[in-house]
Amino acid sequence: MSCSRCKGCMIEDYLIDMEESFGPMWQRAWRCMNCGHVVDSVFEQNRRAHGIQAPPFHSAETTVPLGAEALTRLAA
Description:
This protein is α+β, with helices and mostly antiparallel strands. It has one domain. The chain has helices at 41-50, 68-75, and strands at residues 10-16, 26-32, 38-40. Strand 2 and strand 3 (38-40) form a beta hairpin.
């Protein structure tokens, strides 16, 4: 699955609802490894109800460094 904002890799994640306001306490969601965008059923239901789309991700960089090259850049 790819992110709708930045086309990055999405991974399965679990979110906790501390107030148990909607259904079960733990919710399964998808989180983008690049920009952090989260997609889950509650977020999507609210976006559709209010006619809101997730804002596009804008980055000054054309590529997202992953792995050792990211650590090297941050250390410099």
